Write the structure tokens for this entry.
Amino acid sequence: MTLLNKEPVQRVSKIIKEFDQNLSVSVLETSARTALEAASSLGCEVGAIVKSLLFKTDNKFSLFLVAGDKKASLKKIKKNIKFNDVSMATAEDVKKITGFTIGGVSPVGHLENVDIYIDNSLHRFDFLFAAAGHPNCIFKINFSDLKKITKGTIKDITE
């Protein structure tokens, strides 16, 4: 079975194709589990890699799309989005809520609806690369389309 046939990758592929026929999932020969690995595999700046991070926010889960060269700031998330309690989701929660394993969490195609917040520093890049349901699968998208496809809210959430 090829990686493109895996259910989580198929889920992402269907959504991005429905959004724009020109978007597609690419399989990398090397792992893109971390932003650094992905950037090395793609030959791009680390900041152009979209990290999809699930947090428990008050009594629900929210997904934060963060530039690969930045760190999510709990202080800014609390202040700029008005959450009282923010903590990283467990690996089990990530799998249950998104349907993806850590390292392959896509900005789209989650099993449950989550609010999505996009790091405003991602606009620096002409193209972004996001996980597509598996650590070796990615898709390329521009900032404007990332905002549209995720219906995400742009915020200052990194340090």
